[in-house]
Design a protein that fits this description.
This protein is α/β, with parallel strands linked by helices. It is 56% helix and 12% strand. The protein has 18 helices and nine strands. Bound molecules: guanosine-5'-triphosphate (GTP) and magnesium ion. Guanosine-5'-triphosphate binds next to helix 1 and helix 4.
């Protein structure tokens, strides 16, 4: 058994592991900015080389191509094995950091056990440690370390947790003492995993259940209707709240007296008066019916439209950040196909409800010119923008659900009929 006694003896580190386990992330954590990317001689297989400091030594670190085993099945794996063999042959103080995907212990240990049979010191790094917590996997690190006979360090490459400990334990790297019959390797792995890993039964969170349900057609469509219905009401609730609590009082209590004074100043009539203040209704300013630039002209955009625009984007950004929009795209895909569009096209449509301009810009996500044209045309004709919506709600709202249903029903029918043409 070879034991490296001081950090000074480590001259070279090979980062080895299965593909996609975080080797490159750990590599950049360990090395500085001077990274040399090159091809392995005689191949097109690329690898990166860099340097790190350990004590007073400058150590070469190599990001070896990912491999599932030491019995290569492809070019990249051949290079990985060749690099390992070279390092062993040269006896130049090389060690291996075996990076393991801790959420896939069984598959990853296959390479680990093979590495432990080689005459090179190994440290095992249990990367993606953060993910084990999310997936309910518990690994007894101390026990695994005892079984394998080499240091085992949990890390999270992307946050950098555990990297310090990994570095501090490099000098404890040692050749494996774990012995097993080569033919029984997978059995051995099974035994090890049974001893060190516990998968705690973890209830899916409510959010995950809803997430799954939103993707299945049976539950997805009703859910979509519910989400859109709730969104619509939240938009109305926030918009109406803003109007009732903030804007209307502001206009009625502050702006109206000011304008009344101004109206008197202008002599309560005349062209300028009518232009700026508009007609007085019963001797008072009526912000909806006076129709003056400074009265209705300000009231409609600020106190009737803006609050809805604001609440619309608030709700939309919430839907987007929660990841619901793409899911909606999936569940509505069938319906949208009838219109010659992919489900994804629902996103520009919904954006178009806010303002047709970003909606039209968002049609960029659609693949073909044809789809973009259909989406943009449908939007221009049958998707009212927020300002129009606010007016619709403002004007027809007093007729309640019937009035609104009629208007939107008509729009939806137009949208569907137009789309299917
Ligand atoms: N959650 C989490 N993600 C990680 C961690 N380490 C790496 N990743 C992510 O895993 C992915 C793969 O990381 P890489 O470093 O490219 O993996 P690799 O082993 O170099 O992959 P190949 O070079 O393709 O073999 C990236 O998206 C990383 O951001 C970790 O500790 N936790
Ligand atoms: Mg990589």
């Amino acid at each position: 058994m070879k034991l490296i006694e001081s950090g000074d003896e480590v001259k070279k580190i090979l980062l080895m592991g299965n593909p996609n386990v975080g080797k490159s992330v750990i590599f950049s954590r360990l090395t500085g900015v001077y990274v040399i990317a090159s091809n392995y001689p005689g191949t097109t297989v690329e690898f990166a080389k860099g340097y790190m400091r350990l004590g007073s030594e400058r150590i070469e670190v190599i990001d070896v191509p990912g491999t599932y085993s030491l019995e290569p099945t492809c070019k990249a794996e051949q290079v990985a094995v060749a690099m390992l063999d070279e390092a062993i042959e040269q006896q130049d103080g090389a060690i291996v950091i075996n990076i393991v995907d801790a959420t896939n212990l069984e598959r990853n240990l296959n390479l680990t056990l093979q590495l432990l049979k080689k005459n090179i010191p190994v440290v095992v790094c249990l990367n993606l440690w953060d993910e084990t917590k999310h997936t309910g996997i518990k690994i007894d690190v101390a026990k695994l370390e005892k079984i394998l006979g080499v240091p085992v360090v949990p890390t999270c490459g992307i946050s950098g947790e555990g990297i310090k400990e990994l570095v501090s334990r490099l000098k404890e790297a040692r050749t494996g003492s774990y012995s097993y019959d080569e033919k029984e390797r997978w059995n051995e792995i099974g035994k090890i995993v049974n001893q060190v890993q516990k998968i705690t039964h973890r209830h899916h969170t409510l959010l995950e259940r809803i997430g799954d349900a939103s993707l299945k057609p049976f539950t997805g469509l009703p859910l979509a209707v519910v989400v859109l219905f709730v969104s619509f009401n939240v938009i109305r609730f926030i918009g109406e709240g803003l109007i009732g609590i903030v804007f209307e009082p502001l206009f009625e209590k502050l702006w109206a007296p000011l304008m009344m004074n101004f109206s008197r100043f202008l002599g309560s009539s005349g062209f300028i008066h009518d232009l700026l203040i508009g007609k007085l209704v019963g001797g008072e300013i009526d912000f909806v019916e006076s129709l003056g630039l400074l009265t209705t002209g300000l009231f409609v955009p600020f106190a009737m439209v803006l609050p809805y625009v604001f609440s619309f984007y608030l709700v939309l950004s919430f839907l987007e950040d929660s990841g619901y929009l793409p899911r909606l795209g999936v569940s509505i895909d069938n319906l949208m196909h009838r219109l010659g569009l992919h489900g994804l096209a629902i996103i520009p449509m919904l954006l178009g409800l806010g303002c047709n301009v970003p909606g039209a810009v968002a049609t960029r996500v659609l693949e073909t010119r044809r789809e973009r044209f259909i989406a943009a045309t449908l939007m221009a004709i049958a998707v009212p923008c927020m300002a129009q919506l606010a007016m619709i709600v403002g004007l027809v709202g007093r007729f309640g659900a019937k009035g609104l249903g009629l208007v939107f029903g008509t729009l939806i029918v137009v949208w569907l009929v137009l789309g299917s043409l």
